[in-house]
Amino acid sequence: xxxxDDRELFRERMFYGGRWxxxxxxxxxxxxxDGRVLGRVPDADEAAVRAAVAAAAAAFPAWRDEGGPARGxxxxxxxxxxxxxxxDLARLITLEQGKPLAEARAEVDYAAxxxxxxxxxxxxxxxxxxxxxxxxxxxxxxxxxxxVTAAITPWNxxxxxxxxxxxxxxxxxxxxxxxxxxxxxxxxxxxxxxxDRAGLPxxxxxxxxxxxxxxxxxxxxxxxxxxxxxxGSTAVGRELMALCAEGPKRIALELGGNAPxxxxxxxxxERAVAGALAAKFRNGGxxxxxxxxxxxxxxxxxxxxERMAEAIGRLRVGPGWAPSVDIGPLIDQAAVDKVxxxxxxxxxxxxxxxxxxGLHDLGPPYVQPTLLAEVSxxxxxxxxxxxxxxxxxxxxxxxxxxxALGNATPYGLAAYFYTRDLDRAWRVARALEAGMIGIxxxxxxxxxxxxxxxxxxxxxxxxxxQGLEAYLETKYLCFGGARPS
Length: 485
Ligand code: NAP
Description:
The protein has 15 helices and 22 strands. The protein has helices at residues 46-65, 68-84, 86-97, 101-121, 160-172, 185-198, 212-221, 234-246, 269-281, 298-313, 333-348, 380-383, 399-407, 422-431, 464-469, and strands spanning 14-16, 19-21, 26-30, 37-42, 128-130, 138-145, 148-152, 175-179, 205-207, 225-231, 250-254, 259-263, 291-297, 352-355, 370-373, 390-396, 411-412, 414-418, 436-439, 454-455, 458-459, 472-479. Residues 152-157, 161, 181-183, 212-213, 216, 231-233, 236, 239-240, 254-257, 288, 385, 413, 453, 458 line the site of NADP nicotinamide-adenine-dinucleotide phosphate (NAP).
């Protein structure tokens, strides 16, 4: 098992107003790999959530007025602390989330990348000057921070999903109350500890833990909270959007996906297989941008299956801290049940199982990496995010059919395709209904790009300059009656 070098990063308290707080009730957090209790966190009551919001509201004016460069320097210091404590943070992620240590390190780098990126963006909240329509008038547009913001994040990337929101909000001059997933609160609390060490003023970044629905309702009932940024399932996103309608409050939604991965006959098959492995098996398939439906053109269908079978057969399954493990445990029993149901349902409806197909010898929560051929739209795995290590492949005839099948989903987060034909690359990229398209590429996330989806995959973008804009309000000033020079 893993030990932290810096035990102070393991916090079993909430952080708001620059101090650590306990609660009356608590929730246990377990290691998904072996079910052992890692620790417990407070189950925030309404008073605690309101106190966190009050701290964020009190901190807001000074943080807003601090200026972008000064905010950027503090974010950069926070970034440096993530780099310094990279190994401990990776251990924490593996302990509470389950992913292999190498992937956990990559997640820390990804999370730190958002802090660094937005440290650079903080001074760039440019406004504009509009040529006046009348003599003596001056028109100026300011970009101002929205105010207190709330964030609710999922368990699959406990560091990166939080850093992506917090870095942008804080760079813009907003303050934040964050509520991490109950399966993975310790990474968020470690980030709060490092924010404190970096010198972020009290109340700028706050973390509350506990029952999701109560915290969300309390946060969104607070007038001071101006925006919610949510990453998670589409079902919960809908509920939160309804709650935001009351305010009304702004909302950004990063929701589920059902990404197609299309391989045309002219593709470089080696690259397509490497991309397919990356797009599917990162985090054991538990990513929102995971390829979920593999569509392969008929002339290369069997060749692709053969190569995939070979590559999937080599994947090693085990606890995330074991050396050379490619795939860790799934997050919980419900996740295991869902993945096994998808496999069973597909087999019952005619899919051919080429690799895996059930529980791993290690038992739950370990599932075998699985390859299914001849999947079809009648199957659950075609219509729902499997969120597990299962590749389902279907053949297609031509480009028009690939596009139609690719778009035949309510979701639109990511899509991937492989081709060597430049004209086709443009055509297909334009035709696919998704917020992000990987063309001959299976890994597309990066702090400098606008991450987000269309259709039922959400609204708003995180990362890039769009990420900063998401936390800025527009104010127009009209100066009238100026004396001519
Ligand atoms: P989830 O059940 O929607 O949970 C996400 C977060 O919402 C967790 O913090 C959860 O708390 C909380 N939550 C649950 N029910 C709630 C309620 N009624 N009111 C308020 N908050 C509530 O999703 P998940 O299964 O944890 O995460 C996987 C989903 O996230 C997948 O669909 C995946 O595609 C999506 N995701 C999207 C992106 C993206 O950027 N588009 C990135 C990562 C993941 P608890 O932990 O206590 O349940």
